[in-house]
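This section describes the prediction task in plain terms. A model, or a person checking by hand, is given the sequence of a single protein chain and must write out its three-dimensional structure as a string of tokens. No templates, partner chains or ligands are provided. The sample shown here is typical of the held-out split.
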Amino acid sequence: MGEFKIGCQTITWGNEQHTFFPEMLGEIKDAGFEGVEIGYRRLKHAGVEEMKKLLEDNGLSLVATHVGGNLKDPEQAKSEWGMLDEIIDLIGELGTKMILFSGLKFIDEEQLQRHLGRLKDAHAHCAERGVKLVYHNHDWELLENDGRTFDAIVEESDMELCPDLGWIHQAGKDVLAVLERIGGRIAAVHAKDVADPDGEFEAVLLGTGKAPLSEGIAWVKGNVKKDLWVISEQDSTTVSTKETAQRNAAFLRSLQ
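The expected answer:
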């Protein structure tokens, strides 16, 4: 793969980030990131022209947006997934062609197959419109029901994936083995570090925890033959968001 581009998932800035996008994007730019991933729930609050200008002024690309939930369930009819075409329209105007999805929860195999079918339909619809719908894992896909959710995504669909190295490690799995299993279906990578995979989840600054980020990113560089974004994702921080962005960007640049 050679050098990869580095992006920043804006979860670190919290639920109200849409109220201070200019300040947030300024911190991300100053840290040296090249792009951002912004959840649709936040992104939809900004006008298209306003967000275009903010991204352009800060020299940032919109790498992807993130959505979640079980697709098209009646109880979620008013959720973001009830507006799939609106999401595609919005991100298209902002210059990205990637939607990251997570949330394939299920109670029994019948429900899993129903939800997986809806996800595959959505994946096909996105593809028809020139957009990638990519699955982003947490730890539970690899843990609950003996990892049945992750198995279903890998074995019963042709979706690409955005493996989260920290969540894989938090699940107690071998990061390199999981990457090898996904192989050429890796569309992007989330770099998350975790304090103690044997304890309660705690995200920490990249390179200060126990997730094998250097090894995982080196594997991707050596084995995935396409250009990728490696995206820092730190769910919360004990230092300022500015310092978090600077230190995480520096860590990723050290691996380029």
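For orientation: DSSP finds eleven helices and ten strands in the chain.
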